[in-house]
Amino acid sequence: MTELRSKDLSFSYSTRLILNRISMEMKAGEVVVLLGANGAGKTTLLQSLCRQLRPSAGNVQVADRDISLFTRRSLARSIAFMPQHENRQSELTVLDVVSLGRAPHTGWWLPLSAKDREVVEDSLRATGLAGHRERQITQLSGGEWRRMILARALAQDAPILLLDEPTAGLDLKYQFDVLARVRRLAKERNWVVVVTLHDLNHAAMFGDRLALLAERSLIAMGTAREVLTPSLIQQAFDVSVTVIDHPINGTPFVVPMYPGDSTVATEPDAATLSDVATLPDVAEVSDE
Amino acid sequence: MKYPIFTFAATIILLLILAVTSLVSGAVSISMVGVLQWIVGLESSSLSETEKTILMQLRLPRVITACLVGSSLGVAGVGFQGLFRNPLADPYVIGASSGAGLGVTLAVVLGFQASLMGLSGIAIAAVAGSLLAVAIVFSIGSIGRGSSALTLLLAGVAVSSMINAIASLLMYLNDDSVVVILAWLMGSLAGNDWGVVLATTISTLIGFGILWSMSRPLDLFLLGDVTSQSLGLDLLRFRILLVAGSSIATAAAVASAGIIGFVGLIAPHIARRMVGPRHVWLLPVSACVGAAIMMVADVFARTIVAPAELPVGILTALLGCPFFLILLKARHESTNG
Questions:
Q1: Structural domains of chain B, ranges and CATH numbers in brackets
Q2: In terms of pTM, does the model score above 0.95?
Q3: Which of A104, A112, B219, B294 could form a disulfide with A76 if both were Cys (CB 3.0 to 4.6 A apart)?
């Protein structure tokens, strides 16, 4: 069953075309990673998918219903959107902010029910923030802040989750941490997850399917092996790469060929491989 | 901050104490014991008939009006600071004061005579002017797809400047009316009777009710347009309701006291330090803080040069500013170790 679909979706700022006739379908339980160079329109596409922006042509459908027909609140019960930035200059606490994730369900007046509070507590635990609930959001580190925004999106409990660069500015541990949590949620709760990422190798490991944007269009959509090819990457990012297999989990692994660096393109020798093999398994990290 | 209800209860008690203090002070001093007996309805009250008349006809309506004006400004301040996510916003930020100024100027210059529920023609013109100015600013500021709080703020500045220029021109051409107009614009609580109290009570309650019912959207709105929208807030409807509620509250204050500066700016800041940023508590506490500031300012206005009196709008700024600066300094020290 298709949960989220865009049909010939175009978007332009006044006369400048940003997205040109993007058609894509995303199913329940799958993680789709949006890739593309800076300015390729990833954020614009994500925001059009949740009606933050109104498309200039085409439409977006949730379970076969055009999202322009939803009220804001009913849309918020279907789609949660995690923005890249938001205003952090308020004295609200972590608990206040995560509780606001329940707003689409409780309405604007009623206090949170016992069930709402339970969902909020679950979301705090799932993101490792249970011990931080009384802290003011101005005091959070970048990583804690992103986890809080993720916790709020979880509390929103919408079957479609759109994440705009959830790993930006995080160190490697939290990048894996966030992506693994998101992937597990998609599988456990059968959610559609669409996420924009910059790291092609993370995309290969965590995405069920990858969508590649370039020249205002969707130039490829499919498995990592179908999308992460040297020619498509050259077309989208204007860099030369070699794609090898990840030594442990076998997913495609993109190795950039820096200009003048001839060593990168060579086959890895046995010694290098055995070093890599001692690293912890990705699946292990993700289950932490 | 853990139990805001206690803070709220404490501010209510403070208000009651201030109200009694306010009732006994003035050109004629009345005994505190007598007033307390009179309030609880004891027959044996030691007050003379004259004192009772002063209390009933002059001081009580005045104290209640001060309370209402202060609380509506405190509430409107929270509303506009929320709308602009800017701590510098006050109830007059999108043209309410300049609109009122032009309304008053026109009423005085044209000799507009009317009255409604005890409100004078000048007060009615002030309210009409202030609501009209806000409506103009809002309709200009909300035009177009990219309408934002910033557009609204800039429209407010531009329209206010134009309205002020028209009012100044009218005053320049009618210099004999300037004193009357200025006296009104400086703000005063004198001469309000029970009719004004009723009108002010109604509009204060409506303004407060609209804003308080939007407590959670106001919390959400702090996080930005995109986030509010993605959590289900209809931004246009929210802004219309917020501006309507805040402007009705402002109009309540303008009608019964003219332009009172500073209360609407500082009451929300003080309240935020007392109960934190959540609007469900911030709004009622800011209302109480505003009311307290107005009552204190009014007592000074009536007693410093008694039996004459000073415009209360001057005193709110004179008294409020040092207090506010101390608060800012304390905050600065607490955030910088």
A1: 4-335 (1.10.3470.10)
A2: no
A3: A104
